[in-house]
Specification:
It is built from seven helices and nine strands; from the N terminus they run ββααββαβαβαββαβα. The chain is α+β, with helices and mostly antiparallel strands and about 220 residues long. It is globular and about 45 Å long. The relative contact order is 0.18.
Length: about 220
């Protein structure tokens, strides 16, 4: 079984790692994206119910799908600032890349709220990994970055995502509408506060490279006041 190779970057957001007993979230370097590319090329979503709102590169046909996916990540990595940031992670299980988990925030210094986005390749679904990777990224948000709340949303018929939110203590926070593949569909919105997270906090999740990354996100480093 191949082992994931990760080359250290001088750019702190790419050096952040989150490790649980079952999986690792690794900063999405170009090397890791290249290793994940076959999963994207094979196809992440092939039949309804469609899980992502528009625009979404994963709905495109190959090879436009792979090109658009890479361009979107490269563009997102370049936009990191005090006011907005998006951290991209490749999900690694037993040395194999199986999906992605993102953590985003707008005005984090003022509001302390993050949102999450994720996907798994079809072969990795149904094993509880979606819940595990959400727990991992929430640990980064609340323990590593001192978030006050986390938001998530999912289409009403995206039962897997909604079940994960419920299982982790999120509370329903209204609903909304979005388009997917050009068709309108209803979304459930979810919210998890720091207090609610503390009730399900795990002690077996390890963070790497967070202190060095905090200044790039406009945050004080550990020990600063």
């Amino acid at each position: 079984m191949p082992t994931i190779a990760k080359t250290a970057s001088r750019y702190p957001p790419l050096n952040v790692e989150v490790h649980t007993p079952r999986l690792s979230l690794m900063g999405a370097t170009d090397e890791l994206l290249e290793q994940l590319l076959p999963v994207v090329r094979k196809g992440v979503v092939t039949a309804p119910p469609w899980p992502f709102d528009d625009p979404m590169s994963l709905y495109k046909d190959s090879p436009d799908r792979e090109w658009a996916w890479l361009r979107a990540i490269w563009a997102g990595r370049a936009k990191v600032s005090d006011d907005f940031w998006r951290l991209y992670f490749v999900v690694v299980v037993d040395g194999e890349p199986v999906g992605m988990q993102d953590l985003m925030a707008t005005g984090f210094s003022d509001f302390g709220t993050v949102t999450t986005f994720s996907w798994l390749g079809p072969d990795a679904r149904g094993r509880g990994l979606g819940k595990e990777m959400r727990q991992a990224v929430l640990h980064l948000a609340f323990d590593g970055l001192e978030a006050q709340a986390a938001a998530s949303d999912a289409f009403v018929d995206n039962h897997a995502s909604n079940r994960v939110s419920q299982a982790l203590g999120y509370q329903r926070n209204g609903s909304d509408w979005a388009t997917r593949r050009g068709e309108a569909a209803e979304l459930y919105r979810w919210r998890l506060t720091r207090e609610q997270w503390s009730k399900i906090r795990r002690e077996d999740i390890d963070l790497v490279g967070v202190a060095e990354c905090r200044p790039a996100l406009g945050l004080l480093t550990s020990g600063d006041h």
